[in-house]
Amino acid sequence: MSNRIGELKAKLNQSNxxxxxxxxxxxxRYLTGLTAEGTLLITKQENVFITDGRxxxxxNSRLTINDGIICYDYNDLNEEDDLNFFAxxxxxGFEEKYVTYVDYSKFLVKYRIKELVEASKFIEKQRMxxxxxxxxxxxxxxxxxxxxxLHLLDFIKVGMTEKEIVAEIVxxxxxxxxxxxxxxxxxxxxxxxxxxxxxxxxxxxxxxxPILIDFGAKYRGYCADMTRTIFAGQPSEEDAKLxxxxxxxxxxxxxxxxxxxxxxxxxxxxxxxxxxxxxxxxHGLGHGVGIEVHEKPILSHKVNWDLQENNVVTCEPGxxxxxxxxxxxxxxxxxxxxxxxxxxxxxxNLLTI
Amino acid sequence: MSNRIGELKAKLNQSNxxxxxxxxxxxxRYLTGLTAEGTLLITKQENVFITDGRxxxxxNSRLTINDGIICYDYNDLNEEDDLNFFAxxxxxGFEEKYVTYVDYSKFLVKYRIKELVEASKFIEKQRMxxxxxxxxxxxxxxxxxxxxxLHLLDFIKVGMTEKEIVAEIVxxxxxxxxxxxxxxxxxxxxxxxxxxxxxxxxxxxxxxxPILIDFGAKYRGYCADMTRTIFAGQPSEEDAKLxxxxxxxxxxxxxxxxxxxxxxxxxxxxxxxxxxxxxxxxHGLGHGVGIEVHEKPILSHKVNWDLQENNVVTCEPGxxxxxxxxxxxxxxxxxxxxxxxxxxxxxxNLLTI
Lengths: 353, 353
Prior knowledge:
- The structure is a homodimer of 353-residue chains.
- Chain A has 353 residues and is of the alpha+beta class.
- In chain A, 36% of the residues lie in helices and 22% in strands.
């Protein structure tokens, strides 16, 4: 784990940054493995984790000498201690995309740093390329999600409510080794499916309904993200054709994902295909997945970014016809040198319950 | 709902603030009822909610003319539109405790506001005093939590794991009308109970174990927060005495909660009682509960704050003996003029399963 701090330090040094204040809990977890609330200070001399009485016992039981992190209770630190941490540093980085305006103002007073510089990108870039441990966790999260989908195909019946299905999903995750949901599960049925971020309701499934399920387990802090749209009985011919069209679009886009490919070009390709049929790509094509369910890189027709080996991203085109139907098909995908590998492996053919 | 915006506007005007940029999703939900991602601009002329294609359909279906909010897709706004929103304003507020450093920098360019002023406190103060609708939601969240506790007394058995109990709690919440958990449920058994923020594990309950359960349902966006510590069979005489002592401390503190009481004094009272027996109050005594499970006001021996009628706060002293046992007893409490009313009503006597 301490290797990640070492790698970050090396990158910071290349930019003449002498230290960093890490406050985003996601970054702290990534760099240290700790889930406790606190601040990680990467200084010239040492790495320091400052927490409070609620976490001291847990942190001390987790950190070993190999982590190279000293843990303090912030109640035991005085003003002088705070001033000393960065006393020999010219430039110190902070996470400008996470730190609030008020905390930024506090840092200036507390640590009296000569130059406080924006440094979110260093951790973001490092997190984008997943290591073996991370890929194993995401893969396991995807496996649990796949098992859950299989279970749902058997479980979901006409007459059930969206909320009942959400309850079953969360219960399945927790009973099958997951930490829980990676994000608030979406189950949107019938016309509700046309809202990309629908909140589950007490609506009961009717025959013929599309059932859009956007869900993912979290495993050891890492997320899966998958969407499947199934139908309550045979859909209309029109809806079936729409489904087959979107599936082909999704699969073509997924096949283009590999090291060096332009996320923007892939998304533009999807946009063009959808527009040719009169639809629009109303959200991005995909996003990175890791400790956060939405992280860098973004796959969008608006963002110029080339994919790299060991990025993990979603590929999730959708078609939404307000008030009638929404279809989205999404996989979590591992970027490799010459191809992509889908980590979610659930059946994507048109399925009915 | 629009009344809350009106009240905020009046308070801002009293401080010569002409408008406000509201970006914290919790504030947006509080002021508008909307759960969609987006930015609320309170300007001299109008109230504007700016969102994107994923949410437009939902937002338009929720807002009525009475809400007095105009919704835009940010893709439909150009630079000039952004500049116009606050063109006639001198001072505009922003949420300095939520807005990141990078977003603050963007606001300066985007809206070219003469004076951007810290205004988190206006919404915080307003949110602290709950209205009828809010109290009804919190009460319902507490009722579901109480029902769940009753169910757990029957459900929990020696040999069960902490994670299994968490799964049952979440499932119960979702099956009984809650939105879900108000926060990550803590089930900490045996020596794990001494970590105030323990993460549930696969540890199996052994006879004699303390079982600390810190949990709460969320209902229509509002949280409940309750902790009960029960025992797997008869605890040792020492542990039973410890429990009875803490229960008396908790109940005495809870009785002091009322309009005008000093949160600091109540917390100091608890600290003194604990210290007289050789223990410490290692976390605050309580915190506000509402849309967020942790919000203002804070009840702590370190924070000087007087309670007000219709605050909703927790009262949650705990005793932690590292590696051996932790006991915490917590209620969610409504502050009234002459007394407090516990909204969580589960039995607090020493209970065994």
